[in-house]
Write a structure and sequence with these properties.
CATH architecture of the largest domain: 3-Layer(aba) Sandwich
Strand order of the largest sheet: 3-2-1-4
Order of helices and strands: HHHHEHHEHEHEHHEEHEHEHHHH
CATH superfamily of the largest domain: NADH-ubiquinone oxidoreductase 51kDa subunit
Number of strands: 8
Strand content: 5-15%
Number of domains: 3
Largest sheet: 4 strands, parallel
CATH topology of the largest domain: Rossmann fold
Length: 451
């Protein structure tokens, strides 16, 4: 996936001052290896962090910049870093990069790892210095074979240059970095399931507390951050807090830039680095070019399959967590999907819920049993064999699998698009209910507690 641009928004070239994540990208889409990366000020921020900044000052700088997680949850990065123990006797601690990018319709981390592998390594190096972690792992989605090759080459280049390994930059600080490819489970995007998988265990989420900062991989203090999150760190250290905060549009409560995109039947599907606070309409019309000829926008998701559907009239919402929250859903990963007017929402939701049901770890009852029930009901509605009350049962499942009702956030994310689809397109679901025949015995339906 190469970075693309469209229309008038492309008149301003990418620069280090405005596009900290992507200004180093090559026009041909080839990777930026060490020599070119260093020629473009690569590892300058790492040298500054090692030579001029105390470890706690790095943490405070990231906290003051307001960097938030870019994987979808949006937790403040500096706050997470601050949870790591201060006790110097706990000298075995780990930094994990969550590169298990399996959210449907999301490919932003893949672009960074394939084309700018050294940016991620530099971000992890600075973060490791701040957190006093001596070993790091990039937990990579197994299907990202090209990213694995590029990351492993970049790690070897950094080792040869003295940027990884022992006594980095003459500081006495040691940091080893490994690329670990996963076995293909969506649930590994949850940080404690990722930790279990890295240890060779079944990828089930863990009970919290204790949190990974206290008891993480192999029982040691561990910090887990997303790829895009870590890639923001060098620019923050290199350019400072005020500069980073100035990047976002007026009105945005989030700071910096974000990789955003649009897929679906748009004229120019792609991925762009944009300031927080741009409107979804600008992303959709100026960058993605609007819908292809002959298609009309029916609805859209702002950030992956686990976010709720929005209507065309919601396109004026600003793309940041609070802006999307005002129209009733979450920003998620920031990569939107356009649904055209030829798509039947029942079929689309059946496809989505099948994915989420298959990817459930099966640990807790609501998720293990509730998601397959939603699939059965949607399949019946899709075939025109639904029964009166099926929609109410689906809505009951949306509530029963909502936030705080399950062991982790998998099920709440899975049912959020279902609830929004019924809210906005209920007639399409009602059309799948068959007329009951005289004397017919209704099929068994799930009993939803608390519905």
């Amino acid at each position: 996936m190469t970075l693309t641009s469209f229309g008038p928004a492309n008149r301003i070239a990418r620069s280090a001052e405005t596009h900290p994540l992507t200004w180093r990208l090559r026009d041909d889409g080839e990777p930026v290896w060490l020599d070119e990366y260093q020629a473009k000020d690569g590892y300058a921020a790492a040298r500054k962090a090692f030579a001029d900044m105390a470890q706690d000052d790095i943490v405070q700088t990231v906290k003051d910049a307001g960097l938030k997680g870019r994987g979808g949850a949006g937790f403040p990065t500096g706050v997470k870093w601050g949870l790591m123990p201060k006790d110097e006797s706990m000298n075995i601690r780990y930094l994990l990069c969550n590169a298990d990018e399996m959210e449907p319709n999301t490919w932003k981390d893949r672009m960074l790892m394939e084309q700018l592998p050294h940016l991620l390594i530099e971000g992890m190096l600075i973060s490791a210095r701040a957190l006093k972690t001596y070993r790091g792992y990039i937990f990579l989605r197994g299907e990202y074979t090209t990213a694995a090759v590029h990351l492993r080459r970049a790690v070897e280049e950094a080792k040869a240059a003295g940027l990884l390994g022992k006594n980095i930059l003459g500081s006495g600080f040691d940091f080893e970095l490994f690329v670990h490819t996963g076995a293909g489970r969506y649930i590994c995007g949850e940080e404690t399931a990722l930790i279990n998988s890295l240890e060779g265990r079944r990828a089930n989420p863990r009970s919290k507390p204790p949190f990974p900062a206290a008891v993480g991989v192999w029982g040691k203090p561990t910090c887990v951050n997303n790829v895009e999150t870590l890639c923001n760190v060098p620019a923050i250290i290199g350019n400072g807090v005020d500069w980073y905060k100035s990047l976002a549009r007026e009105g945005s409560e989030d700071h910096g830039t974000k990789l955003m995109g649009f897929s679906g039947k748009v004229k120019n599907p792609g991925l762009w680095e944009l300031p927080f606070g741009v409107t979804a309409r600008e992303l959709f019309e100026d960058y993605a070019g609007g819908m292809r000829d002959g298609f009309k926008l029916k609805c859209w998701q702002p950030g992956g399959a686990g976010t709720g559907f929005l209507l065309p009239e919601h396109l004026d919402a600003q793309m940041y967590a609070g802006g999307i929250g005002k129209v009733g859903t979450r920003m998620g990963t920031g990569l939107a999907m356009a649904v055209d007017d030829s798509v039947n929402m029942v079929s689309l939701l059946r496809n989505m819920e099948q994915f989420f049901a298959r990817e459930s770890c099966g640990f807790c009852t609501p998720c293990r049993d509730g998601l397959p029930w939603s699939v059965k009901l949607l399949m019946a509605l899709e075939k025109g064999e639904g029964q009166p009350g099926d929609i109410e049962t689906l809505l009951g499942l949306v509530g029963f699998l909502g936030p705080g009702k399950t062991f982790c956030a998998h099920a709440p994310g899975a049912v959020e698009p279902l609830g929004s689809a019924i809210k906005y397109f209920r007639p399409e679901f009602e059309a799948g209910i068959a007329q009951a025949k005289p004397g017919a015995v209704p099929l068994a339906r799930p009993i939803v507690i608390g519905a």
